[in-house]
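Subject: mismatched residue count in predicted assembly?

I count 437 residues in my input, but I want to confirm that the predicted structure covers every chain. Input:
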Amino acid sequence: MTEPVSSEVFDQMSEPARKFFGHPAIGTVFRLVLAGVLLYAGGVKMTEPHGARDAINAYRLFPPSWAPLMGYALPALEIGLGLLLLVGLFVRISGLVTAVLMTFFVFGIASVWARGYSIDCGCFGGGGDISPHGRAVRYSQEIARDLMFTGMGVWLAIWPRTLLALEK
Amino acid sequence: MAKENQGAKAARQAAAEARTAAAAAEKARERKIRIFGGIAVVLVMGALIAVPVMQGKNKTATVTNAVLPQGVTKDTYGVKIGSAWTAANPDSIPKLQIWEDFQCPACGQMEQSSGAKILELADAGKIRLEWRPTVFIDDKMVNENLAAGNPKSSRQATIGLGCAVDAGIAEKYHAAVFASQPATEGDGYSNDALLMAAQTAGLSGSAYDTFKSCFDKKTYDGWVTNSYNAFSAEGVSSTPTGILNGTELKGDTLFDPTALEAAVAAATK
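Triage response: the counts match. Full output below for your records.
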């Protein structure tokens, strides 16, 4: 479960880099940051009955009939992942699922951007269309942020050993 | 010597056994944590899905005995504006449906940039304009609306729109409400501000009294609920959204009067 990843790339790394990558303290920070982000995002979506479903519809990627179920399932998934990461259980799989989820969000935002829609990503609740002004800046910030979270999830999937975790 | 060796060996063995036992205990402990932790998280997720699904069923029920404003029909619950609806051959005139929430800032901007052009096209009989009201921002801004003392602002403003339809001042009321939209999303409309919009739209005397009675009694509350449900059911779900002859307008068309007029011209056969 926690054996270090050995690959040519890793072997060729300098000593400081090898100490940095996979360091449990860094993984702990990533784990807790992702837990906070997921719990917050899921919690906010939960408090808005129509909110998450309207935000999902705004992406215009799925048939409208899927939106109600997805509107309930997405925040539940986010909260479940957030709880697992918070206490440090199933860290490897949670990190992986978080990375996949964040990658979906990146594709979603990139796709509405490419199609010329102006929407609020609904990442932290809210969601729906907004005015077109300044959307390039906003979309690129959202994508950068979600890519950062993807990176943290990947890190935890590779090096799941962290401090302050239920699993050793 | 031999005895001593044997003793050390036994001690080592015992220590090794103890280590193995400790490792096994640790493994068992961790397995227990994983199983219980996993079950707990799955239960939480299940509850988080089940509870809102059950609540949501009640919330989105259609109001079967809803009173509808004049000219509004059950197929769309939209407000039809302009002369084109009663033209000799209405099907040849492009139909523009616009989903709006009175509290939506983007709708306010859209009204500022294109509102006059849209009404001009409708009044000239060049489009069949249909306003399709939604009130999703009431749900999105529950706390902000409450803090400002204007709960369910979009709903009350839309009830007013229904009353304004009956009074024959739908266009003016609609424009007056958007003109008085608060700068901060979530501040909402006070009832006084909405009644003022009706006066700005030209109502006075007994016509105003009729409007106010309709407004205070929330006569069209059920209509608003049904129109909001249609919003979610049709999956448009964001505002403002323009649908021209059944096709959603792309990008910024709705915000750009010139582009909008061109799209309407292109859709006119």
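Chain B has two domains: 1-59, 79-267. Marking this ticket as 'not a bug'.
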